[in-house]
């Protein structure tokens, strides 16, 4: 997913400082160079939790990505989000599951990547020959035997809004895996796969269920004319289908578990969604040290839940929290006219 606005990170930081702090001296106090971006050469050997990976003997999980490359009738790119696939892929593997990758059309699906958002696991996926082979030759959903899978995980990306809901093979996969006692997971736009699923007893899967997905607020901040570009907004459609939609703060980790249905609100919910799937399958996830981005999101969650004083305590306990991400949240608040909140959030970046 593109970093929330189209300008580059440097322009975003400069804009924030000009509006809320003033003067370039502030940049030096942040020492952003002390937190370099993840290396493009990262491999699975660099992932602490993969070094503790269990043998893949617990079964198989199917990760499903969209085949839609562009918004219909335009050149605007859609596709699936690399970060929402890569991070879950390795969580599942580390916890003893083999992971297959499928898409409605099969073959090489359209991937979206944003280098500014990538962590070591995302680069590791791109450098993993086996993972890239699975992605290049993704299985066609029509050829999938649902009985082979303990869980199915729907990766987000804007393309899912167009090809997931009405695909009969998506519906068959969800229905049969769920009715056999399996787990259904989905993150960000991935819950679009659940919209039209009806179980054999005639009950819509979503009716009365607690779920989350990319919120209207998040969608409309990124795409001002989203109500025109999309056939629906996912938050609205989930509610129309009888779900109890749970909305967390914008771009903060929010994962909802309702029995054997696990959903995450946005890309920053990918880690927790994948680990919640593992727990729902009856296992304690392999220990994993949170990355700088996750530490920053934890601080932001404390801020939204308990206020700035508690957030400052949480920030002090997490000195490695991603300063850039904290600044981006301050910028979002400022762009929405929440100037007091923008000031408080930028202060968290200082530590």
Explain what the structure shows.
This protein is of the alpha/beta class. The protein has two domains: 9-35 and 290-349, no CATH class; 44-280, 3-Layer(aba) Sandwich (Rossmann fold). 41% of the residues lie in helices and 11% in strands. The strands form three sheets. The chain has a seven-stranded mixed sheet. Strand 10 (255-258) and strand 11 (261-264) form a beta hairpin. Helix 4 (82-94) runs parallel beside helix 12 and helix 13 (292-306) runs antiparallel to helix 14 (308-316). The protein is globular and about 55 Å long.
Strand order of the largest sheet: 5-3-1-6-7-11-10
User: Structural class from helices and strands?
Assistant: alpha/beta
Fold-level CATH name of the largest domain? Rossmann fold
Number of helical elements: 16
Major sheet attributes: 7 strands, mixed
Q: How many structurally independent domains?
A: 2
The sequence of SSEs as H and E is HHHEEHEEHHEEHHEEHHHEEEHHHHH
Average per-residue pLDDT, rounded, comes to 92
CATH architecture of the largest domain: 3-Layer(aba) Sandwich
Helix content: 40-55%
* Radius of gyration from the alpha-carbon trace, in angstroms: 20 Å
Distance between the termini: 27 Å
Principal-axis shape:
globular
Strand content: 5-15%
Total strands: the figure is: 11
